[in-house]
Predict the structure.
Amino acid sequence: MNRRDFLKRACITGIGLSIPGTLDSLIGSLYAFEYADIGVARGASHEAATKAAIDAIGGIRRFISRGDIVVVKPNIGWDRTPEQAANTNPEVVAGLVKLCYDAGAKRVKVFDNPCVDPRRSYRQSGIADAASAAGAEVAFMDDRKFKDVAIGGRALKKWPIYTDVLEADKVINVPIAKVHGLSTLTLGMKNWMGVMGGWRGRIHQNLHQSLVDISQFIRPTLIVLDAVRILTGHGPQGGYLEDVKVLNTVIAGTDQVAVDAYGATLFYLKGSSLGYVRLGHEAGLGTMDLSRLIIRKIDV
Amino acid sequence: MKTHTVRTLRRLSQGIFLLLFLFLFIQTESKGLDQLGYPVRIFLDFDPLIALATLLSAHFIVAGFFFSLIVVVLTVFAGRVFCGWICPLGTLHNMVGFFNRRRPAPVHRGWHTLKYYILFFLLVSSLFTAQLAGIMDPVSFLIRSLSLSVYPLVNYLARAFFDTVYTLDIPVITDGSEWVYDIMKGTILSFEQPYFLQGIFIGLLFFLILGLNLYERRFWCRYLCPLGALLGILSRFAFLKRSVSEGCTSCGLCEKVCPNGAIIDGEGRGRGSECLYCMDCDDLCPEGAITFGWKGRGEGVPIDLSRRNAVVSLVAGAAAVPLLRIVPQSRRGWFNAALIRPPGALDEGEFLRRCVRCGECMKVCITNGLQPTLLEAGLEGVWTPRLVPKIGYCEFRCTLCGQVCPTGAIQELTVPEKERVKIGMAAIDTGRCLPYAYDIPCIVCEEVCPTPEKAIWLETVKVQPREGEETVLQLPRVDIERCVGCGICEARCPVQGRPAIYVISTNESRSDGNQLLLNP
């Protein structure tokens, strides 16, 4: 909480305390200023929804400080267009970049390690153009910048990780919600595979535990789950527009397990049905018990 | 002191065309969009030898046919100015020849006729449907050599240098070198380091031919270049002519300076078909006795071909075709599983009649997967493109190879067309596939399979491992009706060295015979 927020809240609390108890409804609305655990915003403007979802959990200034070097990590895995919902929505990424700069970030870097040709993925996803226009540094990943680091997990002992992620002040995960052949769904935790180098194919041998290990290692400041369009079939690449469901929704949270557990509900699944969510919950990385969380839904 | 105005102009023209050529060459690379944005194959479009050879071998008028007519008309009127002022390979020969400081007494061995026989050989074999012209066509030769060898070499050098400085991590210097490296990556370097089979051999051949300039300047242009020969024939009666006036003192200087051996005696008599119109003789003549001007037809010095050699070259050209074809590859029903042609490639026979082996498709291939063949398609198919999925797969929505092909050997496809074209099919080697052979979960091939309804699907089975309890496992299976043979499964298979899933050319759309299904 910065000084401005503190003063604002102190002021509101003061007013609230000075109001006679009969004005219950007003006091009730003041509770709305408490942070939610998960913000879910729906609206036709994806940038506005992104902002609203983050505002619900405290606003971008709660997460980004002046002078921060921020890594915004979308899913740019495939050579597909935004309508095909295989990559994070470019407007969500751009909106997030702008918010970071609004909060005083010094540099915002956007990158991913695509599964196919990076040039096509960056371009066709619309993310390279949108994020650059918002002022982000959009670069292809540089092979030399992967550094072997100790992950210390149960499945992953050490793995090459991208140094920009290791050196950033803040890391924001911006995945898209879609189906996947092995992990059932790919949401936030699976998106970390994009900062991993080496032969990622081998991770599939023990995927769920590996995802928990890497998520425990990276620990993002914020997770913004793009559910503007979700891919409900033939993931993770898709291709059929019939598989794409338009939800115009953006979800924000700080608990990696909780955000993924919430993401599962978009597909009418329980978080506990996803191996990595269950293992993450058990390992204490976060909670998959959504009933214990404050989830605020906003229409913008 | 005499100023060499014409020479300066000529060098300027050569420089501009060489830079244009190199610029377009470097632009022959994806930027992430479906189109390249520049007419990268335009030098090939202007090449009359390619147009003529393709017309003869495939009875096909190439897209650049009318461009090539411009060069023809230019040559008929003004002689071989293409060779002297435009040809980028000629310019490179000039540059290397600059280091040839030996100025031996001019000799005229009559070797200049060799290139005409080479031309006859190539055109006759084209007439009998073997497209061999591209092997020696200078534009094709240059693009191929640069693409497959020189450019990868330059990239390797630059990357090795910058990587070394990066690893040393010297304050200030490394920052500076990284800054330069970034600029170079955005301009002249390729997106990734290219690697090509036969790159060494193709490079050595290129350097050998450039090196011949040290033996005799413009050796290639004088004795070997079939395009030069074609233009030489066309320039026989050119209107732009060189003439020697009465002022000539027979000093022999022009004979010595002529880069192409076109001046055949001390009196300055020249063979028009060999003149590159560099006009050095005009510039350097101490008496100012040599002029170039527009004149009517006149009798120049003939090319001096021998009838016997001409007949030999024609017969050899005709005989070469059956010689190349008496290999099993020509048999009906023979298909090489490893000969995976690019998407949009014509049926093999027609493909070979058109492909000029310029290497543009291999240069532009986004994954480096298109590689030059050696003998996979028979000697006749040497240096034609084939996909080697282990090196690089065929990117599902990319159509670049068809866009750069100068002769339509690879047809230009729209993205929806491309997504349906099959170049082969995948097969699983269950003896090494992780789930099949070792009960280890792995779905990488399924995940990367790009067709919307995935051609690789997962069958769920129960397995009893040697130790522990019964578990559920997903086995990848190939749906060969949906598989397009792109090879990304092979490229990404974690079983490296010899992937557990691989692509063969079977089921390729371009072939009626190479099919597996009753109703493909």
